[in-house]
Amino acid sequence: MLNCKKSILTFIFLCCALINARAQHTFNSGTSRLNMLQDSLLRLERLVQDAPSNTERFADNAQFVKTLVKALKIPGSYNFGFDSVKYLSIVKSPDKAFRIFSWAVAADDGTYRFFGAIQMATKDGQLKLYPLIDATEEIKDNNEITSNKKWFGSRYYEIVPVVNSGKQTFYILLGWKGNTIKTTKKVIEILSFEKDEVIFGKNVLESTKNGPFKNRIVFEYNKLNSMTLRLDKTVGMVVFDHLVPLSPDMTGNFEYYGSDSSFDAYRPVGGHLKLVENVELKNNPNEKDELYTDPKNKKITPIKKL
After folding, report:
1. First vs last C-alpha separation in the chain
2. What secondary structure does DSSP assign to 48-90, as a single string?
3. pLDDT, tens only, 238-257
């Protein structure tokens, strides 16, 4: 009887060891493949950045996209950081429900094309991915509500969830949009999910004090300047530089826009984002303030104030 019990226990132990070994092997195998693909992404990243022409640059970027998608198809990839690939901006929602990959490819004329994807967290570790298709040239109205297939492309660097009455309703995305050789844009985008669909834009942003609401806010300013646009946890608001023209006769000519050294902000109130003017910031600016001057030309020195 004793020998029988020992045999049963030995059998159970061996089964558990085999299951753990298989699980460990699967994990190690997935991690190893992800590390190999990350190395490929690093190589392609350098090719994109060093490409002498649009044709070569976008061809290399197409390979970069394919390699990234291949990596994300590996079970468990959601928890892989891709930390070595600086070309990518990867931001995870604070509730860990999803993360956004986004990046920009510079064109020869000084403009940019954006690429990205939303990867959802899944219980079984399988891939659930929404590709982001840059359709900036097709979007004639910045206030248009769009989808992942018609995306107002940006390189996102911060996600702020908004909760109303205990229910999460949408996410604020802060992003750099680049623009031309003369001006840069930054964006306050609103992301929500409805019936498994991705929605960009929501009529919750107060455009002027006590004025109408907008679906997104787009800032444009002189390319050699930088602009603060970030979540300030000390005041619980999204704060940003107040941009003005150098003189009244330059109104609307954003090449001559910069900060007047004051700050405005958006405060979540009742499911909307209310504009708060002349906010006093007690903390020092952080690294997000300089996102970005020009990712293609790192030699350009940002000018904080115009």
Report:
1. 88
2. HHH-SSHHHHHHHHHHHHHHHHHHHTSTTGGG---TT-TTSEE
3. 999 999 999 999 999 999 99
